[in-house]
Amino acid sequence: MSTTPATSVETFANPSPQRDYTIRMSMPEFTCLCPKTGQPDFATLKLEYVPDQLCVELKSLKLYLWSFRDRGCFHEAVTNEILGHLAGATHPRFMRLTAEFFVRGGIYTTVVVQHVAPGWQSPQDVRLP
Asked: Is 41 part of the annotated catalytic residue set?
């Protein structure tokens, strides 16, 4: 079992590529460093995606997120970087990453970034009586 951070994520074949479905993950232990002060920044990351042919393997995702622990990153930059890596590895139909950073100096920061594959449209929500 690996106990070191990784700079990439592994994938596995989508077991139901013929269907649009949503995978949601919550990662409440994300940390990086403030690039100005070097102090730790803590965030909860929320990933939602509609896979196409590939899905994110969870252990590799955990090790990938660990790689940011000792890096100085602005909130906006790190959120965009993570989405870019995940979308680049999986080529999803849709992917959204929400980073909810804990309070710093009386300010909470939430950054939301998303990727939409060309031509993909979200199915309509079904409302039941």
From this structure: yes
- Given the residues 20, 32, 34, 55, the one annotated as active site: 34
The Cα 33–Cα 75 span in angstroms is 10
Section 71-83 average pLDDT? 97
Domains annotated on the chain, with CATH? 11-116 (3.30.1130.10)
34 is catalytic: yes
> pLDDT tens digits for 91-115?
999 999 999 999 988 999 999 999 9
Catalytic residue among 41, 55, 70, 73: 41
Residues 21, 51: Cα–Cα separation, whole Å: 7
Please give the pLDDT value at position 2. 64
